[in-house]
Amino acid sequence: MVNDITLELDDEAATLACGERFASILVAGLTIYLHGDLGAGKTTLVRGVLHGLGHVGKVKSPTYTLVEPYSIECNVKSSYNIYHFDLYRFMSEDEWDAAGFRDYFNAQSVCMIEWPEKAAHVLPEPDIHVRLALQNTGRKIQFSAGSALGMQCLEVF
Ligand SMILES: Nc1ncnc2c1ncn2[C@@H]1O[C@H](COP(=O)(O)OP(=O)(O)O)[C@@H](O)[C@H]1O
Ligand SMILES: [Mg+2]
Known about the structure:
Shape: globular
Strand order of the largest sheet: 1-7-6-2-5-4-3
Distance between the termini: 12 Å
Radius of gyration: 15 Å
Bound molecules: adenosine-5'-diphosphate, magnesium ion
Structural class: alpha/beta
Order of helices and strands: EHEHEEHEEEH
CATH topology: Rossmann fold
Number of domains: 1
CATH superfamily: P-loop containing nucleotide triphosphate hydrolases
Number of strands: 7
Largest sheet: 7 strands, mixed
Strand content: 25-35%
């Protein structure tokens, strides 16, 4: 059984590489909370994940749009969606259903959420917690499971 996985990331390239590696263990249906202060590297990690999944375009920070969708091709017949949320500016929980955010959490998507604490009462429980923090000039990253599915994924990380 895995407990927490903690790694040191010396520079931005290490965060991107960690995201690419994390991408390889993702399965559709996961909800992932990304914890950490402004500048901790959450968006950089998501950029690495999307590169790892073959996304070639830009990855913008969804600070104003709250969510940015990406369609990932698995093979010629199937695809799934990555939804990258940044809830820093999320104001009212009434907004959640009005914006249709509930529908983004389904068996064909992976949701990665920055600032989950801003929508604590409406967000589904996470399968995986990722915690990023400053450490010297680099970052420390910690992965922990929030569900049995999350634990299965982290076993192979
Ligand atoms: N391991 C790292 N070491 C040093 N700087 C990093 C590392 N990972 C990311 N950064 C830098 O941290 C800054 C903020 O990253 P960002 O991903 O936007 O943070 P957040 O989304 O958590 O606010 C960026 O300039 C990025 O290059
Ligand atoms: Mg960010």
